Amino acid sequence: MQKIVFDHVTKYFGSAKAVNDAHLTIQEGEFFTLLGPSGCGKTTLLRTIAGFYRQEEGDIYFGDRKINDVPTHQRNIGMVFQNYAVFPHMTVFDNVAYGLKARGISKKETEQRVMEALEMVQLQHLRDRVPSDMSGGQQQRIALARAIVIRPGLLLMDEPLSNLDAKLRIKMRSDIRMLQKELNITTIYVTHDQEEALAVSDRIAVMSEGRIQQIASPEDIYAYPANRFVANFIGTSNFIDGEAAGYNDKDKNASVRVLGASFELPLVKPHEGKAVLSLRPERIRLESAPRPGKLVEGVIESVTFLGEKVSYLVRLQGGPVIDVQEHAVEPHHLRKVKQAVYVNLQLEKATIFDGEGKEVVY
Ligand code: ATP
C-alpha cells in the first residue's frame, strides 16, 4: 500500500501527446479511476505507471521512491486486463501460483496464499479446473486472484469488466470494490464507462485528449463538473445559451439572461458576455399551470418510460429541446406528447460555464 505521485508527466507518440502534463497524487488505499472516451490516454497513463512505457517528461513516484527507470517486474504491481490473460490449459491453482513460483516462494506458503486468494474471489472449489472451460466472469476472478496473491503495493486494472455481460459486470464491480477495501490496496482502474466509474471509485480523473479535465469524488464530479466536457461526459446535461451582464464587483453578482428572462446570480468569478447553462434533467421541474416569475413555456415532444423514471424531451419556447426527468410513481399519470408545460429551470441548481464551456462561473 503506497501513494502514487505523477509530477507533470507527459508521454508522446511521435509528436502527439497521448498523456499531457498529468499532475496528481493518488492516496494510499485509494480506489482511483481514469475515465474518458476512447483514445483519451487512459491506457497510456496506466502503462507508464506499470513501466511498459517511459514518459518523456515528468516523474512518477511510488511513495517517496522515484520509479522512472525501475523495470516493471521490480515495481510490485498486480495487473488485471480486459482479456483476462490467464493460461487457458493450466489449472486455476497453477495460474494463481504462477507469480509466487517466479518469486521463489516455498511450496507450503504458495499453497496457503493461493487458497487465500481463491477464497477472496470465491473460486476455492474450482482450484483444479482449467480456465478454458470456465465462464468469462470466472476467468476474470482468476486474473484478479493472480494479481492480489503477490501482495502488490499497487493494483492496476484496465477495463477488467468489458468482456462480461451487463448483470455480471454490476456484480463483479461491487465484488472488486469490496475486495479492494478489505485489502486496502491502492488501485488504479481504467474504464470508459461512467456509471462503472461512479459506482466503484473513491475519486475519478476525467480525461480528454490526453489531459486530465477534473479530479474529484463521484458525487462532486456529477454535481460540480469543472467544464462543459465533464458535464457532457458524465450523466446527462442540458446546455442552454445565456448571456451575463452587469457584473458587480462589490457583491459579485451578475445578471444572467436566459430564454428571454433575467436572473441575478452570485458568480464565483467575474464574467460578462456569453455563458452556457448546464442543467441536470432531474434538476428541472415541470409544472402544469403557469406561475408568475421564472417559468418558461414549452411543449412535450417525446415521452420515454425508463422504469423508475420517465424522460420528457421538452421544446422550450424560443429555445432548445431539453431532457427533463421525473419519478414515474404512477405510470398512468404520465404527461403526453404535445402537452403544454411550464418549465421551472431552477437556475440556482444549474452550473454556468463561460461561453466556451472551459470553466465554471456559477
Ligand atoms: P481506449 O479506451 O480506446 O483504449 P484510451 O483512452 O486508453 O483509449 P490510449 O490507448 O491511451 O487511449 O491512446 C491515447 C492516444 O495515443 C490515442 O490517440 C492513440 O491512438 C495513441 N496511441 C496509443 N498507443 C499508441 C502506440 N503504441 N503508438 C502510437 N500511438 C498510440
Automatic annotation (TrEMBL):
This is Spermidine/putrescine import ATP-binding protein PotA. Gene3D superfamilies: 2.40.50.100, P-loop containing nucleotide triphosphate hydrolases (3.40.50.300). NCBIfam families: potA (TIGR01187). InterPro entries: AAA+_ATPase, ABC_SmlMolc_Importer, ABC_transporter-like_ATP-bd, ABC_transporter-like_CS, Mo/tungstate-bd_C_term_dom, P-loop_NTPase, PotA-like, Transp-assoc_OB_typ2. Residues 4-234 form the ABC transporter domain. The lineage of its organism: Bacteria, Bacillati, Bacillota, Bacilli, Bacillales. Pfam families: ABC_tran, TOBE_2. It comes from the Bacteria. It comes from Paenibacillus konkukensis.
